[in-house]
């Protein structure tokens, strides 16, 4: 009987210590400072913006930022700094409203808004880069190490969309720069940085128009020294 009583006391102590441990862990979890990171780009990647379409002389690029941590009921601020690796010139290639980005009360994501500008003839044959680093401040520590730097490449050359092979090739066939230019002429817009599921119907329709145009008039591609033809089956 005494042995059973001692066993119950030991079990109670173990459970009690376990509950104390959980409470301390939870306290540590909730008191941990919020962290910040670029949510859709890593230090190995880059965003690219091209003025090759000729449709715009100025545009805005949003670079998404997210936090790790709890929502709060007051505004906080995230700070960025321009890295020394930047080759773009402010006022010529881009404008940045400031190095402080507001995170509204109750929000867990925001973005750095960069105005890009087409005013440099050298962009016809080259590129410049704006490189931003996140900075630790009173509101946020730094998050994932590989997602603390964002690189934005600005050019006037055509940039092949990362998602051309799949799924754009289903609508437009094999990629060439000549076909890319034709797509812009037919559509009235260039392909965005990221694939937009809401535009699938548009891509199917425009793909047919590009196909019919090439069926009537194959394009000569200076880069490949060959004709671009309607060599795919449109959806």
Describe the secondary structure blueprint for this structure.
Blueprint: H1 2-31, E1 35-38, E2 47-50, E3 58-68, E4 76-82, E5 94-96, E6 100-103, E7 109-117, E8 127-135, E9 141-142, E10 149-155, H2 164-172, H3 177-187, H4 200-216, E11 219-221, E12 226-228
Helix pairs in contact: 3-4
Describe the structure.
The protein is of the alpha+beta class and 235 residues long. It is elongated and about 65 Å long. α3 (177-187) packs across α4 (200-216). It contains four helices and twelve strands. It has three domains: 1-31; 35-155, Sandwich (Immunoglobulin-like); 164-228, no CATH class. A hairpin with a 4-residue loop joins β11 and β12 (226-228).
Task: Please sum up the structure shown.
The protein is of the alpha+beta class and 235 residues long.
How many domains would you count in the coordinates?
A: 3
Largest sheet: 5 strands, mixed
Taken from the alpha-carbon principal axes, the silhouette is elongated
Instruction: List unreliable stretches of 5+ residues.
Output: 1-20, 26-30
Enter the CATH topology name of the largest domain: Immunoglobulin-like
Which structural class should the secondary elements be placed in? alpha+beta
Adjacency order of strands in the biggest sheet: 5-7-3-1-9
* End-to-end gap: 81 Å
Helix amount, in percent?
Answer: 25-40%
Please state roughly what percent of the residues sit in beta strands, choosing from under 5%, 5-15%, 15-25%, 25-35%, 35-45% or over 45%: 25-35%
Could you spell the SSE succession in H and E letters? HEEEEEEEEEEHHHEE
């Amino acid at each position: 009987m005494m042995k059973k009583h001692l066993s119950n006391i030991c079990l109670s102590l173990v459970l009690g210590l376990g509950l104390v441990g959980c409470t301390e862990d939870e306290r540590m979890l909730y008191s941990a400072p919020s962290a910040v990171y670029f949510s859709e780009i890593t230090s190995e990647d880059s965003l690219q913006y091209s003025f090759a379409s000729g449709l715009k002389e100025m545009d805005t690029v949003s670079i998404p930022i997210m936090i790790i941590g709890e929502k709060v009921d007051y505004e906080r601020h995230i700070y960025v700094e321009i890295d020394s690796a930047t080759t773009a010139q402010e006022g010529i290639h881009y404008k940045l409203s400031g190095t402080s980005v507001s995170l509204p009360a109750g929000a867990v994501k925001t973005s750095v808004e960069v105005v890009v500008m087409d005013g440099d003839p050298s962009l016809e044959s080259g590129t410049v880069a704006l490189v931003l680093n996140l900075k630790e401040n009173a509101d946020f520590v730094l998050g994932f190490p590989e997602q603390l730097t964002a690189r934005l490449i600005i050019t006037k050359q055509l940039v092949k969309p990362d998602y051309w092979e799949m799924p754009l090739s289903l609508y437009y066939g094999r990629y060439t720069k000549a076909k890319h230019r034709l797509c812009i002429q037919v559509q009235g817009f260039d392909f965005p940085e990221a694939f937009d599921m809401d535009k699938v119907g548009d891509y199917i329709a425009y793909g047919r128009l590009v196909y019919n145009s090439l069926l009537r008039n194959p394009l000569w591609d200076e880069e490949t020294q060959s004709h671009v033809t309607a060599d795919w089956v449109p959806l």
